[in-house]
Recover the amino acids of this structure.
C-alpha cells in the first residue's frame, strides 16, 4: 500500500509537470512565421529595389503568373494585328475561339472576356510592380540613405516611371478610359483600394503619361545603366514620349508640334538607327539582338534555368507553322490574303494599291493575287512584290527563312484561315535561338519582341512632319524613302539546300550559289529602284521620286509604308483607330476578304469597336469603373 | 507481485519523462478484484435486440470448464474472480469477458449479420449508443469490409445517411467525403480521428479497411464540437481492431478478383473511320467550305487511306497530287523519330486499346488475443490492385500492431501502423482533365492507328487528325511513374485510474509521412503537336504531424443521476517540406537512367525547388454528460482552440455546444405501450470552427519566380537574367475563425419488439465568417488575394434511416434504408462588390460555375438553351451574334436583343436532391446474401465532354449517333459571298427534336457556348455490392474452426439517364491560393476514370 501511495505521488508529480510543460510550450506555440517566403522588410536593400524593378520590366510579356491565354502578348498580335485586316486568328475553327470573336467583332459569345482580362491584368500588373518599386526605393532611401547611390536611385526611379507610363499607355491604347495609378495609391485592397474610377478625360490621361515620361527623361541616363541593353534610357523615354504625343494629337492637334519637336530631337541626337537590312530586325541571331533599331523590346531568354520556357517569346508561341513544319504547332496569327496582296508593287516598285484599285484581286478564292503571286508559271510571269513580303509572310513554295520550303502541309486548316504563316517572330534555323524545355520547345525562342522600334518612330515622325504646323511635308517623303531603301537591301534566299522539297521545287538553289544564302541582295536597277528575280518571286521596291504635294498624298504614302513595314507587329489596329479610318478600312477589307474566309461573312466594324470593352470582371471588382460607350 | 510494482515504478518514471500518464479507456475502470478467488458467476447471454441466446457455450479461458446457456439464455458456473469467460455461438461473434470479481456477467453477442453495437467511441471517450443526444451514425463495418476499394472512405458510400462520397475508379484514387452538404468555400473534408489521432487526408489509403473495428460519424455540432476546431464538416471516428481478452485468434482473409470498367467509351463513340468522315464531310459541306481531301481522298468516294502519315509527310495535306504532294510511300525510308510512317486504320477502338480488366488481390492476416492484463492485435496486409487502364496499379503493404497492457490502475499501449503504397502509372488525381488518359485523348479518331509500321506508337500527325496524344502511349510512357507513400501512423497512450471514478489519460499521436514521385514525360514525334524534348521530374515530401492530448474523465452515479465529465487539453503541430527537381533532354530515357544528374540530361534544364509549411493548434475542452434515470439527458461541451493560421487577435475561438435528450419510452405514459420499445427525442445545438487555409496568410508575402519576375535585363539570353521580386500574397492580420452554428433535432424509435428501428434528424447549419479569397481588381497586382471572412452559407436537411429485421421460417433477414436530403444556399457575400463570383476553373475560356447569393455553392451557370433556331426568320434577331437555322437557340433573358454573357442564368446544380442507400441481408443456415444499392437523385452533371464528342473541338472523335441525330435543314444555309443585307438562309429545320445541333464547321463557337444544353441529369441507381457467402461449419475442415467463403460483385449494374461514361464523378482536385476549393467545381465531367465492376471470390478463416 505504501508503494501505491508513492506511486500516486509520482503520478501526481507527473501531472503537475505535464501541466507546466504544456503551459510553457504554449507561449510561442501558435506563433509560426510563414514558410518559404520573405517579408517586405527583407527587400529593403539595393538588391531588393533592383529586383523589384526587374519584376516591373518582366511584365512586358506574359509570365507564369499572367498567362492562360494570349491576350497578354507583348506584341499585341491579338489586339493590334488580328482585328486590323493584317491577319486572321489562324489555326482551325475551334482552337482559341476567343481570338475569332475579337477578329469578327462579335463579342456576344463572351469567350473573349478572358483575353480582355488578360491584357488588362498584364498592363496593371506592370503598373503595380512599377509603383511597388518606387515605394520601395523611397523607403530604402529614407531608412538607409547610403544604400543606393544617387545615380542609381535616379535611374531606378526613372526606369520605374518610364515603365509605369508604358503600361498605362498600353491600357490607354486598348480602352481609352482607364484609371491611372500612382505610387501614392497604396490604400490596401481590403480597405477598398485599387478600385479607382476611370473618369479622367482622354486627353488628361495622355498628359499623365507624358508627365511620367518627362520625369523619367529628367532622371534617366543617356546610356543604359550597367550596360544592360534591356533598360530604358532617357532616349527611350524621349522616343516613347514622341509616340504618346502622336497618339494624343488625335484629340489634341496641338500635340503634333510637341511630337515633332520630340521626335526630331530623337532623330537628330538620339542613339537609334535603322538596321542595315530588314532581316536583321526580327531575328534570333544574337549579333542583331538589341541593335540600333531597338527602342523598347521584350528581352526574351531561353535556357535560363526556367523549366517551362516562360521567359522566351511566350506571347508569340502559337504563331508558328503547324504540324508539317519543324515547329509543329500551332498555326495562329496567319496573314490575311489582303495583307499579302498589299505587298504587290507596280513597275516602279511602289505599292500597287496606290494606283490600281484591283490590287486586292478581282474575284473569288482562286484568283486572289495572294495565290497567283507564286503559284504559276515561269519567273517572268510572277507579279512583282515588295521584298518585305517574304520576311513577313510564309507562303507556299517560298523558302521560310532557312527552314526549307513553306508548304500547304504546314497549314492547319487552309479552308478556314488561308494558306499563309507568320514569319517575323520565327527564329532562324542557324540562329541557335530555340529553347529546349517545356511544351513544344520548337516554338519558344529568344527572338526579342519589338514593342517600339526606330522605323516605327521614323514613320510617326513622318506623320508629325505632315501635320505639325512647323512640319515639312516633304520630310515625310524622305523618311518613307529611307525606310524603303533599307527594305530594298535584301530579299529571302534559298536559306538551306538540305531540304529536299525545296531543292526539288527550285533546283537552282543547288546550283546557283548567289541565291543560296537566307538573305540575298537586291540589285539596283536605277538609283530609286531595286529588284531581284528568284525562282519563286520577283522582288521590286522603288522610292517616291516626286515631292509630296498634298497632305492626303503624304498621309497615304506614310500610312501605306507603315503597314508594309510594321505588318504583323500588332500596330495596325491602333493605327487605324488613330487615323480614324478603322471603319472604312476594316469594312472594305472584310467585304473582299470574306469571299476567301467564309467566317468573315456578316462581320462589321461598328462605332463601339473604336475602344475595346473593359473586361466585365474588372467592372465587377471595381464598381467605379464605367464601361466604354456602346458596350 | 514485486515485479509488477517494479513495473509500475518504472512506468511512473516513463510517465514523467515522456509526460505520458493514464488509463486506456474501459479496460481498467472498476474495482480491483482479489485475484484467484473462486466465485459463482452467472448471467444471461442476449442478442443486441434483447433476444435470449440459447445454446451458447461459456468457457473459462485456459480451462475446460464450461457451461451452455439455457432456453432463457442463462448460464452459471464457478470461476476464479479474475477469469476470462469466452462466449461462443454459431452465427454470433465470439466474446471474451473478464469476470473482474463480478458475480453477474451479462453478455451481448453480436450477430454476424449487421447489428448496431452498443458502445460507440465519441469524442475522447466512449458512450453507450443509447445515451447519445447528437446526430451520430454508426457504420456497418461488416458491410464496408465486403467492398474492394483501396480506401475505406470510398466504402462509406451509401452507408450513412447524410454522407456522400465521390471517387473515381483509378486504383487508390482520392475520395471526397461530404457530411450533410457543404458549409465552406474552402476545404469541406470531415475530420478523421483514427484511434484518437486526428488526421486530414483525402486518401486514407494507408489504413487497410480490413483492420477497422468501428466507424462512427458525428454529424452535428453537439456531437462534434468536442473536436471544435476542425469539426465543422463532421467527424469520422475510426477505431482499428483491438485484441480482446481470450484465446489467441488467427484470422486470414484472402480474396482475389477482376475489375472491368462499368462503361466504355466504345459504347459512345464512332468506331468506324469512314463513318467518322461522314461527320467531317457534312460539317464542311454545311459550312460551305471545301471538304478536306488529305486523308480520305475524294469526299464523294472516300476510302480508308493506306497511310495517314507517309514517310514524306510534308505533302500530307495538299488538296491534289502534285510535285509537293508525295503519294508514294517507301517503307524503307522509315526512320524513328524523323520519318514515321503510319498506316490508316479502318477503325481503331481506342477505348479497348487502353482499357481492359485489372486483377485484384488482397490478403490480411491477423493475430489477436490477450489476457486480463493485456491485449494485442497484430496484422499484416497486402493489396495489389491493377487499374482497368493499362499500366495503372496500386500496391499496398502494411503492418499494424495494437497492444494494451494493464497493470493495476495503470495501462499503457500503442496502436501503430506502418504502410507503404506504390501507385504506378503517374495518373493525376483520378486522371481528370482533357490531357489525361481519358479526357479527350480517348477521343482519337478511328482512322488513327495505335502503332506505326515499325511498332512505335502512332498518332494523328496529319492535318485534320486532331492534336491528341495516343492514350496508350501516355499510359505506356508513365508506367514507371511511381508515387510511393510511406506512413507511420499511430499513437502511444497511457492511462491512470486515479480514483474509483476519476481517470486520466494521455495520448501522443503521430502521423509521419514520406511521399515521393518519379515521373517521366516522353517525346511525341508521332503527334500533331510534337514534343521533342523528354524530361523527368521527381519530388519528395516529408510530413510530420503530432497531436498530444491529455484528458481527465470523471464519472459518478448517485441513485439515478449519472454524471460524466471530461476535461482535456490538446496540442497539434504539423510540418511539411516538399522538394522537387526536374531535368529535360535525357541522354538515355531508360528507366534506369532517369536520374537528375548533369551527365544524364541537359544540365541547363535542371531545376530544383523546395517549399514547406508549419501550423499548430492548441486546444482546451470540457464536456459534461448528465442523465437522470436514462430518461432525461443533458450534455454541455465547451472547447477553445487557438490556431497559428489566424490573426494574433483572433487566434482563439470558443466552441460551445449543448445536447438534450428525452427518452419518452421511459415515461409512464408510454412505458407499457406494445409498439415502441424505445423512443428518444434528441436536440443539439453547437458551434464548430474552420481554419483550413494555408499557413502564413496573416502577413503579406514577397518573393518571385524565375518565370514570372526574373528578366534578362542585359538582353543577352540567357546570361544576364536577373532575379526579380514582387508581392506574392496579400496578408490579412484580421483573419478569424469561420464559425458554424448547427441545430439538430432527432428522433430514435425502436418498434415491434426491437425488430424495427427508425432514426431521423433534421438539421440546419449556418456558417458565418466564411473564409475566402475573393478576387482582387487587377490594379492590385497579381499577388494572391487576401483571405478574408466574407459571408454566410446555410445547409439544411434531413437524414433518416429505417431498418427492420426479422426471421421468417428460419431465414434471418434485415433491410435498412437510409436517405438524406440537404439544401445549400449562399446567404451573404461581403466585400466583393457583387453578389457572385465565378468558379475556380475555366474550361477552354468558359467558366461553367458560379457562386451566387441565394444559390447553392458551385451552381452551374450559362445561357438557357431552347431547342434550335428553326429558320432564318427565327434566327434573324440574333444573326449578328451567330444565330443560324439549326444552331442551338438561346433565350435572350435580359431582352436586349442580343445573346451575350448577360443572358446567363443558373442552369443547374451538382447537389443532389436526395441520396439514399439500401442494405439487404439474408441469412439462412450457413448461407448469407447481402446487397447494397445506392442512389443519388436530382443532381446535375455539366457534361464538358460535349466539347469533344458533340462539338468536335480539336477534331476529336464524336458520339456514334451524332450524324444520325443532328439537325438537318431542308435547304442550304452556307454563307454566301454577298452583302450582309442579302444574307438569306433558305433552309428550315426538319427535325426539331434532334439531339444535336446542325453539323456545321463554321459554327465553331455559337452553339457550344456554355448553356443548359451541356447540363444533364446525373441521377443514378447502382447496385454497389452483392455478396453471397457460405459459412463452413467449424468441424468441416479439422484445423479450421470456422471459415466463410464468398463471391461478390460490385457495381454490377447502374441505372442512369446520363449520356457520358459514368455519372459517379470524382471531384476535381482544385486548389486556390487559399487552399482546397473542390466544392466550387463539382459535377463537371471533364473525363475521368470510370468506376470499376469488380468480381471477387474470397475466404475468411479463423484458427
Amino acid at each position: 500500500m505504501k508503494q501505491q501511495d508513492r506511486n500516486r505521488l509520482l503520478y501526481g508529480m507527473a501531472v503537475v509537470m505535464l501541466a507546466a510543460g504544456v503551459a510553457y510550450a504554449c507561449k510561442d506555440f501558435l506563433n509560426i512565421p510563414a514558410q518559404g517566403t520573405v517579408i517586405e522588410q527583407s527587400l529593403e536593400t539595393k538588391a531588393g529595389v533592383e529586383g523589384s524593378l526587374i519584376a516591373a520590366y518582366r511584365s512586358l510579356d506574359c509570365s507564369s503568373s499572367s498567362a492562360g491565354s494570349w491576350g497578354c502578348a507583348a506584341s499585341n498580335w491579338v489586339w493590334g494585328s488580328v482585328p486590323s485586316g493584317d491577319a486572321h486568328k489562324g489555326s482551325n475553327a475551334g482552337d482559341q475561339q476567343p481570338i475569332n470573336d475579337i477578329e469578327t467583332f462579335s463579342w456576344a459569345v463572351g469567350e473573349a472576356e478572358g483575353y480582355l482580362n488578360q491584357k488588362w491584368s498584364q498592363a496593371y500588373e506592370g503598373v503595380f510592380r512599377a509603383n511597388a518599386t518606387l515605394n520601395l526605393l523611397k523607403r530604402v532611401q529614407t531608412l538607409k540613405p547610403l544604400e543606393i547611390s544617387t545615380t542609381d536611385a535616379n535611374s531606378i526611379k526613372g526606369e520605374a516611371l518610364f515603365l509605369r507610363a508604358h503600361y498605362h499607355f498600353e491600357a490607354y491604347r486598348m480602352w481609352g478610359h482607364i484609371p491611372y495609378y500612382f505610387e501614392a495609391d497604396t490604400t490596401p485592397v481590403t480597405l477598398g483600394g485599387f478600385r479607382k474610377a476611370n473618369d479622367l478625360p482622354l486627353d488628361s490621361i495622355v498628359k499623365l503619361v507624358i508627365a511620367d515620361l518627362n520625369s523619367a527623361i529628367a532622371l534617366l541616363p543617356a546610356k543604359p545603366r550597367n550596360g544592360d541593353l534591356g533598360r530604358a534610357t532617357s532616349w527611350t523615354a524621349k522616343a516613347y514620349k514622341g509616340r504618346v504625343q502622336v497618339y494624343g494629337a488625335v484629340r489634341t492637334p496641338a500635340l503634333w508640334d510637341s511630337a515633332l519637336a520630340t521626335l526630331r530631337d530623337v532623330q537628330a541626337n538620339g542613339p537609334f538607327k535603322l538596321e542595315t537590312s530588314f532581316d536583321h530586325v526580327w531575328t534570333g541571331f544574337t549579333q542583331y539582338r538589341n541593335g540600333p533599331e531597338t527602342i523598347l523590346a521584350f528581352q526574351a531568354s531561353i535556357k535560363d534555368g526556367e523549366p517551362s520556357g516562360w521567359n522566351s517569346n511566350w506571347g508569340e508561341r502559337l504563331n508558328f507553322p503547324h504540324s508539317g513544319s519543324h515547329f509543329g504547332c500551332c498555326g495562329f496569327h496567319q496573314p490575311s490574303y489582303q495583307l499579302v496582296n498589299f505587298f504587290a508593287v507596280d513597275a516602279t516598285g511602289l505599292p500597287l494599291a496606290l494606283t490600281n484599285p484591283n490590287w486586292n484581286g478581282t474575284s473569288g478564292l482562286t484568283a486572289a493575287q495572294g495565290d497567283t503571286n507564286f503559284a504559276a508559271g515561269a519567273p517572268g510571269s510572277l507579279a512583282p512584290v515588295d521584298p518585305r513580303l517574304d520576311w513577313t509572310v510564309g507562303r507556299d513554295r517560298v523558302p521560310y527563312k532557312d527552314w526549307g520550303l513553306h508548304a500547304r502541309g504546314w497549314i492547319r486548316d487552309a479552308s478556314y484561315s488561308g494558306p499563309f504563316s507568320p514569319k517575323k517572330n520565327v527564329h532562324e534555323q542557324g540562329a541557335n535561338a530555340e529553347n529546349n524545355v517545356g511544351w513544344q520547345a520548337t516554338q519558344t525562342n529568344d527572338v526579342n519582341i519589338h514593342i517600339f522600334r526606330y522605323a516605327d518612330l521614323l514613320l510617326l515622325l513622318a506623320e508629325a512632319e505632315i501635320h505639325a504646323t512647323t512640319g515639312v511635308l516633304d520630310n515625310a517623303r524622305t523618311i518613307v524613302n529611307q525606310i524603303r531603301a533599307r527594305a530594298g537591301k535584301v530579299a529571302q534566299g534559298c536559306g538551306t539546300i538540305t531540304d529536299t522539297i525545296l531543292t526539288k521545287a527550285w533546283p537552282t538553289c543547288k546550283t546557283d550559289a548567289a541565291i543560296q544564302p537566307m538573305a540575298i541582295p537586291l540589285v539596283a536597277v536605277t538609283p530609286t529602284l531595286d529588284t531581284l528575280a528568284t525562282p519563286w518571286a520577283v522582288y521590286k521596291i522603288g522610292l517616291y521620286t516626286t515631292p509630296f504635294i498634298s497632305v492626303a498624298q503624304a498621309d497615304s504614302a506614310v500610312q501605306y509604308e507603315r503597314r508594309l513595314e510594321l505588318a504583323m507587329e500588332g500596330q495596325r489596329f491602333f493605327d487605324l483607330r488613330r487615323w480614324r479610318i478603322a471603319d472604312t478600312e476594316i469594312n472594305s477589307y472584310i467585304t473582299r476578304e470574306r469571299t476567301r474566309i467564309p467566317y468573315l461573312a456578316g462581320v462589321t466594324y461598328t462605332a463601339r469597336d473604336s475602344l475595346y470593352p473593359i473586361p466585365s470582371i474588372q467592372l465587377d471588382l471595381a464598381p467605379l469603373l464605367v464601361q466604354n460607350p456602346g458596350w | 507481485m514485486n515485479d509488477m510494482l517494479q513495473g509500475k515504478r518504472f512506468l511512473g518514471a516513463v510517465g514523467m519523462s515522456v509526460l505520458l500518464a493514464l488509463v486506456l479507456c474501459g479496460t481498467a475502470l472498476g474495482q480491483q478484484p482479489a485475484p484467484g478467488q473462486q466465485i459463482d458467476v452467472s448471467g444471461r447471454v442476449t442478442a443486441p435486440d434483447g433476444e435470449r441466446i440459447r445454446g451458447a457455450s461459456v468457457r473459462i479461458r485456459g480451462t475446460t470448464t464450461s457451461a451452455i446457456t439455457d432456453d432463457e439464455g442463462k448460464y452459471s458456473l464457478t470461476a476464479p474472480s479474475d477469469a476470462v469467460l469466452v462466449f461462443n455461438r454459431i452465427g454470433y461473434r465470439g466474446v471474451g469477458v473478464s469476470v473482474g470479481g463480478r458475480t453477474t456477467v451479462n453478455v451481448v453477442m453480436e450477430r454476424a449479420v449487421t447489428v448496431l453495437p452498443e458502445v460507440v467511441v465519441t469524442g475522447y471517450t466512449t458512450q453507450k449508443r443509447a445515451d447519445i443526444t447528437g446526430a451520430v451514425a454508426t457504420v456497418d463495418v461488416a458491410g464496408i469490409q465486403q467492398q474492394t476499394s483501396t480506401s475505406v472512405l470510398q466504402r462509406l458510400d451509401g452507408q450513412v445517411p447524410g454522407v456522400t462520397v465521390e471517387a473515381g475508379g483509378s486504383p487508390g484514387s482520392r475520395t471526397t467525403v461530404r457530411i450533410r452538404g457543404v458549409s465552406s468555400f474552402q476545404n469541406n473534408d470531415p475530420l478523421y480521428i483514427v484511434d484518437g489521432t486526428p488526421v486530414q487526408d483525402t486518401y486514407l489509403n494507408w489504413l487497410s479497411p480490413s483492420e477497422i473495428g468501428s466507424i462512427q460519424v458525428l454529424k452535428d455540432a453537439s456531437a462534434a464540437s468536442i473536436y471544435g476546431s476542425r469539426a465543422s464538416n463532421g467527424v469520422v471516428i475510426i477505431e482499428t481492431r483491438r485484441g480482446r481478452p481470450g484465446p489467441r485468434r488467427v484470422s486470414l482473409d484472402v480474396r482475389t478478383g477482376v475489375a472491368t470498367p462499368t462503361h466504355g467509351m466504345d459504347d459512345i463513340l464512332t468506331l468506324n473511320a469512314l463513318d467518322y468522315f461522314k461527320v467531317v464531310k457534312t460539317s464542311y459541306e454545311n459550312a460551305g467550305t471545301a471538304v478536306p481531301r488529305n486523308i480520305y481522298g475524294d469526299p464523294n468516294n472516300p476510302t480508308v487511306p493506306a497511310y495517314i502519315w507517309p514517310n514524306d509527310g510534308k505533302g500530307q495535306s495538299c488538296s491534289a497530287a502534285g510535285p509537293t504532294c508525295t503519294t508514294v510511300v517507301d517503307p524503307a525510308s522509315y526512320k524513328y523519330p524523323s520519318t514515321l510512317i503510319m498506316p490508316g486504320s479502318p477503325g481503331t477502338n481506342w477505348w479497348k486499346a487502353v482499357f481492359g480488366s485489372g486483377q485484384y488481390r488482397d490478403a490480411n492476416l491477423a493475430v489477436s488475443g490477450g489476457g486480463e492484463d493485456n491485449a494485442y492485435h497484430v496484422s499484416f496486409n497486402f493489396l495489389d490492385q491493377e487499374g482497368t487502364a493499362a499500366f495503372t496499379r496500386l500496391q499496398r503493404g502494411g503492418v499494424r500492431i495494437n497492444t494494451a497492457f494493464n497493470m493495476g490502475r495503470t495501462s499503457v499501449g500503442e496502436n501503430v501502423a506502418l504502410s507503404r503504397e506504390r501507385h504506378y502509372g503517374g495518373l493525376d488525381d483520378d486522371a481528370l482533365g482533357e490531357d489525361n488518359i481519358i479526357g479527350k485523348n480517348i477521343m482519337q479518331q478511328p482512322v488513327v492507328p495505335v502503332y506505326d509500321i515499325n511498332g512505335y506508337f502512332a498518332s494523328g500527325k496529319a492535318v485534320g487528325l486532331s492534336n491528341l496524344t495516343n492514350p496508350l502511349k501516355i499510359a505506356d510512357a508513365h508506367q514507371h511513374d511511381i508515387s510511393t507513400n510511406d506512413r507511420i501512423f499511430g499513437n502511444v497512450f497511457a492511462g491512470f485510474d486515479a480514483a474509483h471514478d476519476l481517470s486520466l489519460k494521455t495520448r501522443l499521436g503521430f502521423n509521419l509521412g514520406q511521399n515521393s514521385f518519379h515521373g517521366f514525360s516522353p517525346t511525341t514525334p508521332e503527334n500533331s503537336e510534337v514534343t521533342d524534348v523528354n524530361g523527368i521530374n521527381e519530388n519528395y515530401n516529408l510530413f510530420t504531424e503530432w497531436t498530444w492530448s491529455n484528458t481527465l474523465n470523471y464519472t459518478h452515479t448517485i441513485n439515478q443521476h449519472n454524471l460524466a465529465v471530461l476535461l482535456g487539453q490538446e496540442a497539434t503541430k504539423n510540418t511539411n517540406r516538399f522538394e522537387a527537381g526536374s531535368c529535360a533532354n535525357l541522354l538515355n530515357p531508360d528507366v534506369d537512367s532517369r536520374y537528375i544528374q548533369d551527365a544524364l540530361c541537359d544540365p541547363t534544364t535542371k531545376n530544383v525547388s523546395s517549399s514547406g509549411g508549419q501550423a499548430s493548434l492548441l486546444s482546451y475542452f470540457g464536456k459534461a454528460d448528465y442523465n437522470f434515470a436514462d430518461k432525461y439527458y443533458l450534455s454541455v461541451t465547451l472547447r477553445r482552440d487557438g490556431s497559428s493560421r489566424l490573426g494574433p487577435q483572433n487566434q482563439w475561438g470558443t466552441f460551445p455546444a449543448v445536447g438534450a435528450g428525452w427518452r419518452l419510452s421511459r415515461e409512464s405514459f408510454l412505458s407499457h405501450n406494445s409498439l415502441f420499445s424505445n423512443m428518444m427525442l434528441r436536440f443539439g445545438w453547437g458551434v464548430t470552427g474552420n481554419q483550413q487555409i494555408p499557413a502564413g496568410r496573416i502577413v503579406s508575402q514577397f518573393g518571385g519566380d524565375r518565370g514570372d519576375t526574373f528578366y534578362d535585363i542585359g538582353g543577352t539570353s540567357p546570361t544576364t537574367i536577373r532575379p526579380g521580386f514582387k508581392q506574392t500574397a496579400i496578408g490579412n492580420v484580421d483573419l478569424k475563425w469561420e464559425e458554424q452554428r448547427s441545430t439538430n433535432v432527432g428522433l430514435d424509435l425502436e418498434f415491434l419488439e426491437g425488430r424495427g428501428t427508425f432514426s431521423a434528424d433534421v438539421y440546419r447549419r449556418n456558417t458565418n465568417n466564411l473564409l475566402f479569397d475573393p478576387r482582387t481588381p487587377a490594379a492590385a497586382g497579381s499577388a494572391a488575394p487576401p483571405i478574408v471572412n466574407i459571408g454566410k452559407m446555410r445547409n439544411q436537411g434531413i437524414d433518416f434511416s429505417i431498418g427492420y429485421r426479422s426471421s421468417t421460417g428460419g431465414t434471418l433477414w434485415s433491410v435498412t434504408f437510409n436517405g438524406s436530403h440537404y439544401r445549400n444556399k449562399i446567404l451573404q457575400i461581403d466585400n466583393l462588390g457583387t453578389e457572385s463570383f465565378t468558379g475556380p476553373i475555366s474550361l477552354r475560356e468558359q467558366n461553367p460555375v458560379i457562386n451566387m447569393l441565394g444559390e447553392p455553392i458551385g451552381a452551374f451557370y450559362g445561357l438557357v438553351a431552347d431547342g434550335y433556331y428553326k429558320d432564318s426568320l427565327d434566327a434573324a434577331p440574333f444573326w449578328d451574334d451567330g444565330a443560324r437555322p439549326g444552331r442551338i437557340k438561346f433565350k435572350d433573358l435580359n431582352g436586349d436583343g442580343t445573346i451575350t454573357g448577360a443572358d446567363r442564368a443558373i442552369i443547374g446544380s451538382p447537389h443532389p436532391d436526395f441520396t439514399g442507400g439500401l442494405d439487404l441481408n439474408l441469412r439462412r443456415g450457413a448461407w448469407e446474401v447481402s446487397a447494397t444499392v445506392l442512389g443519388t437523385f436530382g443532381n446535375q452533371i455539366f457534361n464538358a465532354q460535349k466539347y469533344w464528342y458533340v462539338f468536335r473541338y480539336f477534331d476529336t472523335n464524336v458520339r456514334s449517333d451524332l450524324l444520325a441525330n443532328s439537325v438537318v435543314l431542308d435547304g442550304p444555309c452556307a454563307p454566301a459571298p454577298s452583302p450582309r443585307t442579302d444574307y438569306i438562309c433558305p433552309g428550315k429545320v426538319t427535325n426539331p427534336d434532334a439531339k444535336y445541333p446542325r453539323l456545321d464547321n463554321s459554327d465553331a463557337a455559337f452553339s457550344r457556348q456554355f448553356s443548359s444544353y451541356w447540363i444533364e441529369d446525373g441521377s443514378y441507381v447502382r447496385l454497389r455490392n452483392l455478396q453471397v457467402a457460405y459459412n463452413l461449419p467449424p468441424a468441416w475442415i479439422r484445423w479450421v474452426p470456422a471459415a466463410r467463403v464468398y463471391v461478390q460483385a460490385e457495381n454490377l449494374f447502374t441505372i442512369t439517364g446520363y449520356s457520358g461514361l459514368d455519372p459517379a464523378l470524382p471531384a476535381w482536385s482544385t486548389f486556390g491560393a487559399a487552399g482546397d476549393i473542390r466544392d466550387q467545381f463539382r459535377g463537371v465531367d471533364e473525363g475521368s476514370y470510370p468506376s470499376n465492376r469488380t468480381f471477387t471470390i474470397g475466404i475468411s478463416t479463423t484458427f
The mean pLDDT of chain A is 90. DSSP finds 22 helices and twelve strands in chain A. The two ends of chain A are 91 Å apart (CA to CA). The CA atoms of residues 168 and 400 of chain A lie 37 Å apart.
